[in-house]
């Protein structure tokens, strides 16, 4: 039977091409973190800073809500304060609430009212430095480096590890229709009941749930490029860097794509 982190990571990849899911979702990463991939799990072993490899970063100051729900098996029910709703067994009539059902193992929901996507800047320069580190046997061929992060000041994440799981949450105020708002840390969400086995983070603060990694690859034809993609619909741009002038190596640094 597939493990919950494999199901979750595979589900995220179907939603966000070429992004990896942090496991556990509470694990915090930074741009420039170095690691190896154990299946779908990124295992940090160091950082560019520790290897004294210089790099620059590009901040993202424009926030965007993030709502990710698995393809099937997730439903939401809301009630306002003072409403009698037979679907709610544990939230008092006087309180607002939400009931979230996860009907299959691996079903998930990731809700962030705000998210940002900082990335490594000047990829051409970073490519050169990592190739130099590899030639000096400071860098290993199976290492990957985080080149883009999704950061969230607050988030609510639920991942089911069993069939027919659900939670009932009460809130300090009536809930809005926008699902991403359920990730607010100041919403006053309180767990009233849980059925089934699940991983849950309710109003967690300052997390880095998703990221892209780059890895040294062999060039068979064409120019080497370092590319990163944004998950924001409004951001159609991508970073690309042509090979370093005079570079004789057949190595290049590129994001690790789904299926590689």
Q: What overall form do the CA principal axes indicate?
A: elongated
- Contiguous helical run count: 2
Low-pLDDT runs: 222-229, 233-249
Question: Percent helix among the residues?
Answer: under 10%
Query: What is the total domain count?
Result: 1
Number of strands: 14
Structural class: mainly beta
- How large is the share of residues in beta strands? 35-45%
Major sheet attributes: 8 strands, antiparallel
Backbone CA Rg:
21 Å
Mean pLDDT: 86
| Alpha-carbon distance between the two ends | 22 Å
**Could you give the order of the helices and strands?**
HEEEEEEEEEHEEEEE
Provide a descriptive summary of the structure in words:
- By secondary structure, the chain is mostly beta strands.
- The protein has helices at residues 4-15, 123-135, and strands spanning 20-21, 33-38, 41-47, 56-58, 64-69, 74-79, 96-102, 108-115, 119-121, 144-160, 165-171, 190-195, 198-218, 251-255.
- The protein has one domain.
- The chain contains 2 helices and 14 strands, in the order H-E-E-E-E-E-E-E-E-E-H-E-E-E-E-E.
- Strands 1, 2, 3, 5, 8, 10, 13 and 14 form an 8-stranded antiparallel β-sheet that branches.
- A hairpin with a 2-residue loop joins strand 2 and strand 3 (41-47).
- The longest helix is centred in the middle third of the chain and has 13 residues, at 123-135.
């Amino acid at each position: 039977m597939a493990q919950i982190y494999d199901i979750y990571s595979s589900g995220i990849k179907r939603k966000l091409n070429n992004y990896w899911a942090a496991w556990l979702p509470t694990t915090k990463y930074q741009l420039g973190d170095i690691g190896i991939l154990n299946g779908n799990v990124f295992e940090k072993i160091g950082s560019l800073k520790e290897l004294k490899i210089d790099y620059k970063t590009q901040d993202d100051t424009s926030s965007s809500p993030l709502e990710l729900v698995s393809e099937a098996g997730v439903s939401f029910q809301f009630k306002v304060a003072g409403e009698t709703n037979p679907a709610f067994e544990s939230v008092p009539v006087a309180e607002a609430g939400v009931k979230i059902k996860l009907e299959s193992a691996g079903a998930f929901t990731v809700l962030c009212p705000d998210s940002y996507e900082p990335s490594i800047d000047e990829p051409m320069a970073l490519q050169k430095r990592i190739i130099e580190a590899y030639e000096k046997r400071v860098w290993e061929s199976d290492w990957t480096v985080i080149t883009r992060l999704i950061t969230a000041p607050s988030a609510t994440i639920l991942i089911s590890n069993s069939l027919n799981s659900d939670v009932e949450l009460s809130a300090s105020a009536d809930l809005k229709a926008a699902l991403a708002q359920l990730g607010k840390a100041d919403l006053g969400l309180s767990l009233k009941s849980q059925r089934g086995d699940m991983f849950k983070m309710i109003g967690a603060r300052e997390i880095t749930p998703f990221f892209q990694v780059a890895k040294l690859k062999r060039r068979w034809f064409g120019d080497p490029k370092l590319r990163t993609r944004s998950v924001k619909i409004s951001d159609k741009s991508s970073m690309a860097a042509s090979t370093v002038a005079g570079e004789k190596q057949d190595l290049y640094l590129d994001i690790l794509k789904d299926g590689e």
